[in-house]
Fold this protein.
Amino acid sequence: MRITLRRRLKSETIERIPKGDPYVDLRRKCARWAVDNLNHLEETEPRIPKVLNDRAADNWRPLLVIAETCGWEEEARDAALRLSEIDDDETDAIVLLGDLADLFDREERSDPSSASITSAAGIHR
């Protein structure tokens, strides 16, 4: 069985988990599995893809240990790589901050006006 994961688009809505506890049996089984496999989970050091940054590697470590214990290590590493593809240096917010820093460097004043910022961005009222 293959589960394909992707990030949710901002335009997509998700179905929320209903109130109450519809997953009590699943939680019980997961807790039992964790107890049964605790030694292996504590001792296993998963092969973490070297291309992941420190934060991504730390976030993926417990999931990769669980996946390895279940025999899904290749699939889990593939998912970690695909879901971690976003380059933090290229997000819209980072690009915008870089552009604003360039604008501040070009302006004679230390506080460019909104008009000069929108003009530099090609935005006209």
